[in-house]
Structures are given as structure tokens and as C-alpha cells.
Amino acid sequence: MAHGRVPNVRAISITNFKMNFFLRELFEWFQAFVSVLPGVIGKYARRALFKLFARKVGCSLYVGLRVRIQNPSNIEFGNNVGINDGVWIAANKNKQARIVIGDNALIGPYTVIHSGNHVFKDPSIPIYYQGFSFEPIVIGEDVWIAANCTVLAGVTIGKGAVVAAGCVVNKNVEPYTVVGGVPARVIGKRKGENT
């Protein structure tokens, strides 16, 4: 630079860290408060909170009671998405850990959607010290994930699929397929005029 000061990169990164930390803390506090607000006021407060912090929120997002969203800036919600009570969606900070939920998707109560995983390959090192791996999760349009399911990192659930209650989804689900069990297996197909 011919004129002026050279920016202090360390100071900028510390400032960014402090701001990101503050925003994450702010989100956590507001989320804890609004997650237990009942009725219409609670519904609108949760929707407004996620519109402020999520990467993308379509119209008509429904968020039930006690829903926990981790790192909302890495989550996209389509139009007419319903997230029932007690759901935990963890996108993590890593950019590879993005979660996308398509239009008209329904997430049943007490479902966990988590785009990170512990690394545990080396038995000579405690799992605690082996770090994490991250992969995106894509939930297509018109998907219904029933109650108490777990959707793991790296999974894509195709358009129109149904995930039966209690499933652990660790592999991709084809469009218009019905899966059930632990781990999830194909148990049927949705049949209709448009499939």
C-alpha cells in the first residue's frame, strides 16, 4: 500500500470472532426463550427468530415448541416447512455441513437431523481427540419425516419420500420411496397419478 496503514489481520480476525461469538450467544439466548412460548405468539416469535438467523427461510415456516437449531446460518428452509415439537437440527459451523430442507417438507416430533459426526477410526486415540467429519444433508420437496427419526450426515432424501417413525437414515432415500427401520430400508413406494 502506497499510502495509509496496512490492516492488522490479527485484530480483524479477533473482531470477527468476537462478533460471531456474540451473535451465536444472542441466538442461543433468544432461542431458549422463544422455544417454550406457547400459542400463536410463540409460533410467530420462533419463525421471526429463524428468519433473522437462518441462511434462507421461505414463506410459512412452522416451528413447534422446544425446537433446537444449531448454527442456523448453515440451514435453508423452503416454503411451507413444518418442524414439530422437540426437533434438533444441527448444521455445525463447517460450510460442508449445510442442511437444506425443501418446500412442503414435514419434520415429525423429536427428530434429530445432524450433519456432523465424530471420527473414530483409530482405536489407539480416544474418540474425543479424533475430531469431526461433516457432510451436507438435503431433504427434498414434499418429504415427510415421522416422529423420533435420526437423519445422519451425507444423506439426501428424495422428493416425495416418507421416513417412518423411529428410523435411522444413514443412506440416501430415492424419490417417492417409503423407508422404515434401523437402519432405514425400503418398505414401499408412494403410488399415484404423478409418480
Explain how this protein is built.
This protein is an alpha/beta fold. The protein is 21% helix and 26% strand. The protein contains two helices and 19 strands. The radius of gyration is 19 Å and the shape is globular.
Stretches with pLDDT under 50, minimum 5 residues:
none
Major sheet, described briefly? 7 strands, mixed
In one word, what is the shape? Answer: globular
> Which structural class should the secondary elements be placed in?
alpha/beta
Q: Note the run of SSEs as H and E.
A: HHEEEEEEEEEEEEEEEEEEE
Mean pLDDT: 90
Q: Helix proportion of residues, in percent?
A: 10-25%
Oligomeric assembly:
single chain
Question: How many distinct beta strands?
Answer: 19
**First-last Cα distance:** 62 Å
Strand order within the widest sheet?
2-5-8-13-16-18-19
Strand content: 25-35%
Number of helices: 2
Radius of gyration: 19 Å
Can you give keywords for this protein?
195 residues; alpha/beta; seven-stranded mixed β-sheet; globular
